[in-house]
Amino acid sequence: MSQAPYKVTPIFDETTLPEAIRNEHRTKAGTWGLLRVLEGAVTLVFIDPAREVAVSKDRPAPIPPEAPHFVKVDGPMRLQVEFYREQPSTQ
Prior knowledge:
The protein is mostly beta strands. The chain has one domain (7-84): Jelly Rolls (Sandwich), CATH 2.60.120. Helix content is 4%, strand content 43%. The strands form 2 sheets. Strands 1, 2, 3, 6 and 8 form a 5-stranded antiparallel sheet that branches. The two termini are 13 Å apart. It comes from Novosphingobium rhizovicinum.
């Protein structure tokens, strides 16, 4: 039984990615995010504890509830974010 996201953002590229995603933000309590890169690559930066995660087409990144983070873009890319009520599979 595969879990399905309850919400999915539009697909953004390096020019349409909202400032809100490029700056520090967090998901709500009980909400997991899954950052999926469709083309190119981005860096998912967590604030506390501090760490960076390279995200690419073959390597989506889960975002825990309430974890402060932002997305760093360093070139052409396309991505979207899926939202789940439980920790998502990265497959």
